[in-house]
Every structure is written in C-alpha cells, then in structure tokens.
Write a structure and sequence with these properties.
CATH topology of the largest domain: Immunoglobulin-like
Radius of gyration: 29 Å
Number of domains: 2
CATH superfamily of the largest domain: Cupredoxins -  blue copper proteins
Strand content: 35-45%
Oligomer: single chain
Strand order of the largest sheet: 5-11-10-7-8
Distance between the termini: 102 Å
C-alpha cells in the first residue's frame, strides 16, 4: 500500500506535465507563422491596390470642374501586321514567348486602352510639379507601353532582363543609352511633346511618353475609362491621342464648377480595315 502511494505523485506530475505541454503546443499552433503572414498579406493586397488606384487622382477643387468618360473603338479594327522576332536573334528564346501586340488593345465591348486624353492648349498660371515615372524593360517589352507626365519630370529606365537593352528616345527627348542587366538610368523630360522610345537591340520593342505643360491629362486603362479633375470652368477642347490606328481627334466640352462633365467617345480608325 505504501508503495502504491509513492507512485501516485509521480504519475500525477507526469500527467500535469503532459497537459501543460499540450496546451503550449495548441497555443503555438494558433499563432500565425510566416506562411500565414504571407497569406494575410496576399489577402490584403487587392484592397491595398484598390486604395492606391483611388489615390491616383488629386482631390477635386469644388470651384473647378472635372471630366470623365470612356473611349471605345468604332467599326472593324484594321489588320495589323504582327510583330516578329528573327529566328537567329541571340535573345529569341527568351523573348518570343512574351511577344505581344500592344498597338491596338480592345476590351470585350471595344473599350480602347492607352488613349491619352488631355485638355488641348491649356496654359496654367503656374508650371506643374515634375513627376517621377518608371519605364521597365521586362521580357523584351517596355512596361508601360503608353504613359503621360509633365515637362520637367524624370523617367527611371530599369532592366529586369538578363541581357542588355538600350533606351533610344526621339522627338521630345533625344537620348540613346545602354541599360545593363539589372541596371537603371534616370533621364529628364525637359519639354512638352511626344517621346518615342525604342530599343536598338530588340527592334520590335516600343513605348510612348506624352509630356504636357499642365496636369490636365489621363491615359485610358483596359476599360477605356479616363478622368481629369480640376479643370477651370468654361469651354475647352479635348484631344484624344492614340498610337495606331486612330489619328488624333479633338472634341469641345463645357466644364462647369463643382460638376463632373461626361464625355464618351467612339474613335474610328484612320486606316482602312481589310479582311486579312
């Protein structure tokens, strides 16, 4: 009997230790680890992206007006000769899988992407603030294909590929510099106009930067939508620019203080459509 009494305390101690260990294990399991943290970040990423998108435009001045709308393509799109990469090009294998046509991008309802919408000929009382934009060389493609900014802004050209590119700019910017793999180069956009960007090593690449002397512009997204806030009240001429195949067009609008004016435009091709 005495022998059995001596065994009970040790048994209880073992049981208690087991219960405590199990409790600690369960608490450890409840604590999110690195994978859970990553999942949480992934879940919140879309919300953060939406928030960033909402901040794309400055706050609306109630004394000024705004313009918003959508650009679509009217009629049948013309045939565009596809881009090609020479089979003997040294970077053919790395580039061919990513080759895509970006000159004419249409949505399901013919929403037209990459249309630069601006208030034509507007002269602000003060020069707009310079901006910092980025042009990435990625998979033998310039990203983004079309963008707009203000005169005096800087563009940072980066190279995410494992081979050399060069930034060859003409018209509004005259520049030709090599960008090493993983490297970058920053250039100023000193004046208004249209900068055409190519790569001499990969001739199928191309990008466009429209440079303005004011802030009243936007570039349509995949949904064809645009928005220009803080436009002075009165009659204005709106220019719509597209790389190809739509010629620049102008539309007159009346802007009223404190109101959003709607402008939906269907652009026609300046190139005759063909069956093939």
């Amino acid at each position: 009997m005495n022998h059995n009494r001596n065994r009970c305390p040790s048994t209880l101690l073992t049981l208690c230790a087991s219960i405590i260990a199990l409790g600690l294990l369960l608490r450890a399991d409840d604590k999110p680890g690195p994978a859970a943290d990553a999942d949480k970040k992934a879940e919140t990423k879309p919300a953060d992206a939406a928030k960033a998108e909402a901040k794309k435009y400055p706050d609306q001045d109630p004394a000024l007006g705004s313009l918003e709308g959508k650009v679509t393509f009217e009629g049948d799109p013309p045939r565009i000769d596809p881009k090609t990469i020479p089979a003997n090009h040294q970077d053919h294998a790395a580039c061919v899988a990513h080759l895509k046509e970006e000159r004419l991008l249409l949505g399901e309802k013919k929403e037209l992407k990459d249309v630069v919408v601006s208030v034509f000929g507007y002269k602000p009382a003060q020069k707009p603030k310079p901006r910092e934009i980025t042009l990435e060389n990625k998979n033998c493609t310039y990203v983004p294909h079309v963008q707009a900014t203000t005169a005096g802004s800087s563009v940072k050209i980066t190279n995410s590929d494992k081979f050399i590119h060069n930034f060859h700019a003409s018209l509004a910017l005259q520049k030709n510099v090599a960008i090493a793999p993983g490297g970058s180069q920053t250039e100023k956009l000193p004046r208004e106009g249209w900068a055409v960007i190519t790569c001499d090593f990969h001739t199928w690449m191309g990008a466009h930067i429209k440079v303005f002397g004011h802030d009243l512009f936007d570039v349509t997204g995949a949904d064809g939508a645009f928005k220009i806030p803080n436009i002075p009240p009165g009659e204005h001429e709106i220019e719509l620019w597209h790389e190809y195949p739509v010629a620049p067009q102008k539309v007159k609008v009346k802007i009223e203080p404190g109101k959003a004016t709607r402008l939906d435009v269907a652009l026609k091709s300046s190139v005759k459509a063909t069956s093939k």
